[in-house]
Amino acid sequence: MKTRIAAAGLLLALVQLAACGPTPLITDLVIINYTQSGNTDFIAPGKQINDGMFMRYHIDSISNNDTNAQLFHFDPQKIFAQAPANKPFNHPCIPTNATAFDVPAHTGTTAELFGVTIKVPGDPASLKTSFVFLTYASGAGEHVLMAASAANLQAQPAPKPPLVLPVPYKGDICNG
Predict the structure, then answer these.
(1) Contact 151, 22 (CB under 8 A)
(2) Residue 77, SS3 per DSSP
(3) Out of 94, 155, 165, 175, which residue is the most buried by the measure of CB atoms under 10 Å away?
């Protein structure tokens, strides 16, 4: 008798789980879409650095539309590449840097005039056309995904992952 009751209970639990389906663990996800638009190792007109590459990223959109969205405070200083120390840098030859602002719940933005420049340390020759993913240092109660644009990827037949395309090397951006 106990076995039948246990089996019926188990069956009832399985039916309940199957009917409800899985629930998401995060329901307030903010998605920041970006494109890596170019790399340069010039810091001033005719003056190159020899310990890394400046990588320019355009923030294409911020989506704050998840089920339980909350007010999201976008802070460009929370963006980094490869290591938390590689934060946005105010390059003297590249204007229109991102500034902090709020994205209300259940909205999005496609602001056109902001981006970030990050200096990634390393050998300039190997970084010249490299693609480097961005990360957002989410704070308490924040769930942020940085999503790279498909402009930096080339589709491949399944089951292969997309190829990462070379990023344009911009040369002496200070004279151009």
Answers:
(1) no
(2) helix
(3) 94
- In the chain, where do the E strands start and end? 30-40, 42-44, 47-48, 52-64, 72-74, 79-81, 101-103, 107-109, 115-121, 134-136, 144-148, 153-154, 163-164
Contact (Cβ atoms closer than 8 angstroms) between residue 114 and residue 96: yes
Cα(135)–Cα(85) distance, rounded to whole angstroms? 12
Residue 97 region by backbone torsions, left for phi larger than 0, else alpha for psi between -120 and 50, else beta: beta
| Residue pLDDT, tens place only, 50-84 | 999 999 999 999 999 988 999 999 999 999 999 99
Predicted TM-score (pTM) of the model is 0.81
* Helix H or strand E segment including 126: helix 124-127
Residue 107 is predicted with a pLDDT of: 87
Q: How far apart are CA 56 and CA 36, in angstroms?
A: 6
Q: What is the pLDDT of residue 176?
A: 66
pLDDT, tens only, 103-118: 999 888 875 558 899 9
Is residue 73 a contact partner of residue 100, using CB atoms and an 8 Å limit?
yes
